[in-house]
Amino acid sequence: MSEADTPLKAHPPVSPESVEYWERCAAGKLLLQRCRTCGNVQFYPRLLCTACASDELEWLEASGSGVVKSFSIIRRAVSAAYEPDVPYVVALIELAEGPTMMSNVVDCDAEAVRIGLPVQVRFEAISDAISLPVFAPA
Domains of the chain: which residue ranges? Predict the structure, then answer.
């Protein structure tokens, strides 16, 4: 199979409210939104605060630290693009700042992942414009 025939992984949508988030991920920084009105910290980027509906949101650079809250080991690829990665871990990561985000746990055996595992963010470039936050054991 030539490189042109290699199936591509799905890319996340980039919306006006998430442009800065993706730009910072490409630079190796994880951003969250914080409400200036009530202090709520949220993920994923939105137009309004999920706690008070204020539009007074600012960006907060996250520590990138978290713990595995839940996970699943994927043993059957959803498409040919993901076959080289099997088995891989999809997890809910509870960030130190409070929000939970879905991501992958990397750089360890899938069987070693457990609930409560401390993790740290890394970034995986999937295109010139998009780097995904992934997590490795801390």
Answer: 10-137
